[in-house]
Amino acid sequence: MTSGFAFLHPVFLLAGVAVVLLYLAVRRRPAPAIRVSATTVEAARPRRRLDPAVLEVLGLIGLACAVARPVGREIVEDPARGIDIALVTDVSSSMLAKDLSEGKTRLDVAKEAAARFVASRGNDRVALVTFARHPDLACPPTRDHAALARMLQATSTVRADGPEDATGIGFATAFACDVLRRRGESARVVVLLSDGEENVATTLAKDAVTPYQAAVAAAALGIRVHTVAVGGGSRASDGTPRPLDTTELRRIAELSGGLFFQASDAAGLNDVYARLDALEPTRAGTPRVVLREWFLAFLLPGLLFWCVGRIASATSKGVVP
User: Fold this and answer.
1) Pair (6, 34) in one structural domain
2) Per-residue confidence at 5, pLDDT binned at 50, 70, 90?
3) CB burial class (10 A; 0-12, 13-18, 19+) of residue 207?
């Protein structure tokens, strides 16, 4: 939206007026009469041309306006500034349980809720990290949410009882923080969803990252980690229900400045993502004034008029008394 037009150095307009007046005063001096033949006079009469002085004056005016620095002021709205979000999703075989929604696995419900959440975050860069024993970057931070939705839809669990079928919450959290750290954004958030407990970073594991270590690292990087526990737990080897121990997920959220959520069904998980959407608003754009230079728009015509006027004046045949 254009808000106006102005000269940044209007004093040069006054100087230009003075130069034009001085020029006109000089031009008014009587030119010496010369003798010309009647034939020349008769030939010259029908050829009335624009006075070169007019062109020169227009040129001087254009140059004065150019030096006065003409600008157009426009108010533009900066686009809303999104944040960087890493969705970290558990894909261990326990996510195949169907206790969140009839006929759907925990992973299916989680993918649907995450897809709706991403669709509402139009200005954010969103990454997708999946993990079981080890984390994988399924999709780097992107605003191409359609591509991310396809990656999310293609996500599947690891093979049950295979070498990857474990739950490395600490490693996954640290990995996601490293992905966001490389983006260099000030507002960065991790949303970690799991239905299990850390069973990779044990006392016997030498290089594993514990949930506590990951939470401390996230806090040091200024990355909030919101954790979401889903499902009703697991079953022991004898079939006895075993509730999920959420201590580590709660601790990660608390140490990093995030929040802990628990969802026992699909509606509850959708509510969690709705609360996260409200909790992490996109920063609104701010209006600012932009100056559009009009220097050349006055300079070039000014030079053209001045040069044409000078050439016409220099090639004049003379004046008739």
Assistant:
1) yes
2) confident
3) exposed
DSSP string, 217-281: HHHHHT-EEEEEEESS-EE-TTS-EE----HHHHHHHHHHT--EEEESSHHHHHHHHHHHHHHSP
Domain extent at residue 53: 2-76+288-314
The answer to whether residues 95 and 143 belong to one domain is yes
Closest to 143 (Cα-Cα) out of 80, 221, 225, 218: 80
**For residue 32, which phi and psi values (nearest 5 degrees)?**
-65, 135
In this structure, the answer to whether residues 234 and 124 fall within a common structural domain is yes
Alpha helices per DSSP H over the chain = 11-27, 38-44, 52-67, 106-119, 145-153, 169-181, 211-221, 247-256, 266-279, 295-314
| Whether the model pTM is above 0.85 | no
Higher local confidence (pLDDT), 254 or 202 = 254
Q: Do 27 and 160 sit in the same domain of this protein?
A: no
Q: How many CB atoms lie within 10 A of CB 221?
A: 14
